[in-house]
Amino acid sequence: MAKRIEVSGLHAYYGGTHAIEDISMTIEPRSVTAFIGPSGCGKSTFLRTLNRMHEVIPGARVEGKVMLDDEDLYASSVDPVAVRRVVGMVFQRPNPFPTMSIYDNVAAGLKLNGVRGKRRLDEIVEESLRGANLWNEVKDRLGKPGAGLSGGQQQRLCIARAIAVQPQVLLMDEPCSALDPISTLAIEDLIGKLKSQYTIVIVTHNMQQAARVSDRTAFFNIAGTGKPGKLIEIDDTSKIFTNPEQKGTEDYITGRFG
Amino acid sequence: MTTLSRTKSSTLESVSAGRKARDRAAKVFVYLAFLLAVIPLVSVLWTVISNGAKRFDGVFLTHSMNGLASKDAGGGAYHAIIGTLEQVGLTTLISVPLGVLTAVYLVEYARNGRLGRTISFFVDVMTGIPSIVSGLFVLAFWLLALGMDFSGFAGALSLTILMLPTVVRATEEMLKLVPGDLKEAAYALGVPRWRTIMFVVLPTALPGIVSGVMLAVARVMGETAPLLLTIFITKAINTDPFSGAQGSLPTFIWDQSTDPNTNAVDRAWAGALVLILLIMLLNLAARLVAWLRKPSSR
Ligand SMILES: Nc1ncnc2c1ncn2[C@@H]1O[C@H](COP(=O)(O)OP(=O)(O)O)[C@@H](O)[C@H]1O
Ligand SMILES: [Mg+2]
């Protein structure tokens, strides 16, 4: 299931602005990699280059290479729509489809891609909701609108929706920043469970969260406003938080910066 | 007594008499404005209902004017109701798909490109076309140049010219309100753009689009001038909108009300009442459809 991601020499632009510069890293399968760094250093931008969501923004473009096992995601023969089925994404703000029921939200990725057959859909919906630790809370109201759930439940619904299409990789952009501490804990538990099956990348502003959930941590930074963001270092989380190679990382983690 | 007691100096109670008076004056003004806006509406409804009730009966709803002179009692608007329903039905059938697709193109694909700006300009121009001009255009082009006969369809064509820009603009506004978040969520599931538009964007905007379409339908239902030039006038029932002169409620009302005898004038009022009721019924039906589509009511 899970796949390794290897990025080399990646640059991303918004029109004329150079947003991230020359990033290379390896993201291990069946593990959680956390991205930390000050606001505006390009964490979200980099995350979105990993499932070709960056180019959805008008004028945005990417240079460089992203290998998913032995496939180049940016090869000219590759369909970006197909990439997004393999590399799923969860956003900062929970965004269930407001016109759809809980059931239809989870089934959306499959239904909209032409999967039919009620038995099969029922199965996948239940499995995904169980996978997202939400089944017990919603099993009696699958026909009710997804927008009627609490913020934390909505975010788990979005995770269920993302895993229902059975991706290899799951990207999460600050999935807990709009949630209360209890819901945050529920999502962190879930991440711990999901990593046995998926390659997980999570952007977070919360240092404790990075330390709690991730196996590896990447630190990004910018030299100044208007300059492109860069990868400063990536290493095992325990190493980054106790004995980082770079002075900038240490300053950021100990709070002497940003 | 606490510090919040009713001493004159408390900062929490410093709303001055002048501010209270201004607040009251503003309230009175708002209510007055509301009343002023409601007066014409109530008075129109009242006049139409009280005058229309006289001939609003079974005969009126099931008989045409065939074989009757306008001074005769009896007769009805059956031929006109059929005509209006068919003409407006055809108009909606042409305008809604065309208008919604145009709006989808403008909002989702054109992105301020040259073609998008050109289309947008022509939609603006169409919005400003006086209704009689749309009738004259169909008369000159469809009836005279192409040699077609008067028909309900010719009427529908002239109404389409009036309805299309309204549908495009209303749909455009609603599509712009759909949060970008939702589109991104669909793209991130590996859903292609056109399916995202069909199954996420349009359903989200649907209630607004339905309201916009209903307003447009109500507007063209009452159009008289373009119909006079395109469907002509007949007293007989013609259920085929593609051939021959056809009745319609606005032309019926116009025809009967220009006749100076009470039987005809009463029929004109009853016709106006039927027109208003039809529009209200369609509105209710559309609301019901929008409501049934919400997941909570299933
Ligand atoms: N849609 C966009 N259009 C133009 N510039 C953008 C857009 N999104 C982000 N940027 C710019 O790219 C840089 C990186 O932003 P982002 O990836 O959101 O940072 P982070 O997620 O680390 O806070 C910032 O300078 C930001 O202003
Ligand atoms: Mg961000």
Characterization of this structure:
The complex is a heterodimer of chains A (258) and B (298). Chain A is an alpha/beta fold and 258 residues long. Chain A has a domain of 177 residues: 3-Layer(aba) Sandwich (Rossmann fold). Helix content of chain A is 35%, strand content 26%. In chain A, the strands form 2 sheets. In chain A, strands 6-7-8-3-9-10 form a 6-stranded mixed sheet, with helices on both faces. In chain A, strands 2-1-4-5 form a 4-stranded antiparallel sheet, covered by helices on one side. In chain A, a hairpin with a 2-residue loop joins strand 4 and strand 5. In chain A, helix 3 packs across helix 4, helix 3 packs parallel to helix 6 and helix 4 crosses helix 6. The longest helix of chain A is centred in the middle third of the chain and has 14 residues. The N and C termini of chain A lie far apart (38 Å). Chain B has 298 residues and is an all-alpha fold. Chain B has 2 domains: 52 residues; 240 residues, MetI-like (MetI-like fold), CATH 1.10.3720.10. Helix content of chain B is 71%, strand content 0%. Chain B is built from 11 helices and no strands. In chain B, helix 4 packs across helix 6 and helix 7 runs antiparallel to helix 8. The model of chain B has no long low-confidence stretch (mean pLDDT 91). Classes of the chains: A alpha/beta (258), B mainly alpha (298). At the A-B interface, helix 2, helix 3 and helix 6 of A face helix 7 and helix 8 of B. Chain B: It is found in: Cell membrane. Chain B: Part of the binding-protein-dependent transport system for phosphate; probably responsible for the translocation of the substrate across the membrane. Chain B: It holds the Pfam family BPD_transp_1.
